[in-house]
Specification:
Number of helices: 7
Bound molecules: zinc ion
Structural class: alpha/beta
Shape: globular
């Protein structure tokens, strides 16, 4: 029997401009174009079941890190018909501050996380300021609380969460970074999260400079191609072009919510 497709949404909640090329690529040419970053959470919906991918960051973290906070990623879930109080499953691609904040705002959710990201974010590597910088301690404390109240489902590598929905550990950028493969009306789409911040990272095989293991990041680029039906089915984690290529979920949500299960139009 055919697999029933998921609807897939990207919700844009923050922005960062004024970057220089060395912040987007290792060994960048200082004269080349430097893309801004957008910040997203993603939603998968099929009938009554839904999965939220990542939880974004709050206003306080935005102010501290000087990011432009456009809207609450948690409250914005209501724009696609989800009540955060009722969300049952949250996939955390990795524990960086921009993907794993607001963990106290999902009172009923189970959190799907890779073993290795928890080990990484609470162990020896965090003795290095450079590796620790993208994590916020309060998020880690919150996640440990969830572990102690049986609300974390750990995965080790590949895991199928439902028919047409699977997780795959990439590592690279963070030791336990995972990507999400989802069946849609246009085929297999891969929500890459920070396996590729920008289209240019995976298309040009150029690693992003926040990295735990460069070799794994490069292997991850190949994994994206393997798991997606085509390069047009790979969705980068922070590229502002996502909002340009994909159609708005509704006209009043232009620039806020796009449909990733619709074919992108490169403009
Ligand atoms: Zn990250
Ligand atoms: Zn990120």
């Amino acid at each position: 029997m055919a697999i029933e497709p998921f609807e897939v949404f990207a919700i844009r909640y923050a922005h960062l401009g004024g970057r220089h090329p060395g912040e987007n690529f290792i060994l960048a040419d200082p004269h080349e174009f430097a893309s801004d970053l957008d910040y997203f959470v993603w939603v998968l919906r099929r009938g009554d079941s839904s999965f939220v991918i990542d939880t974004g960051f709050g206003k306080e973290a935005a102010a501290r890190r000087r990011r432009e906070w456009l809207r609450s990623p948690v409250e914005s879930l209501r724009l696609v018909g989800l009540n955060p109080d009722q969300v049952s499953d949250v996939i955390i691609t990795h524990l960086h501050y921009d993907h794993a904040g607001n963990l106290d705002k999902f009172p009923r959710a189970r959190f799907h996380l890779q073993d290795r990201d928890m080990v990484y974010a609470t162990g020896r590597c965090m003795c290095h300021e450079n590796l620790r910088a993208p994590f916020d301690l309060e998020n880690m404390l919150e996640m440990v609380k969830h572990v102690y109240s049986d609300r974390v489902e750990f995965h080790d590598g590949d895991a199928e969460l439902a028919e047409g929905l699977s997780l795959h550990r990439v590592g690279g950028h963070s030791a336990g970074l995972q990507i999400v493969r989802v069946w849609t009306r246009r085929g297999w789409v891969v929500i890459a999260s920070d396996a590729t911040h920008l289209y240019a990272n995976f298309e040009q095989r150029r690693p992003f400079p926040i990295v735990y293991n460069v070799a794994e990041m490069l292997e991850g680029f190949k994994m994206l191609y393997r798991l997606a039906d085509s390069p047009e089915h790979i969705v980068p984690g922070h590229d502002p072009l996502v909002m340009k290529y994909y159609p708005a979920a509704k006209s009043e949500l232009e620039g806020i919510v796009v449909r990733l299960d619709a074919a992108p139009v490169r403009r």
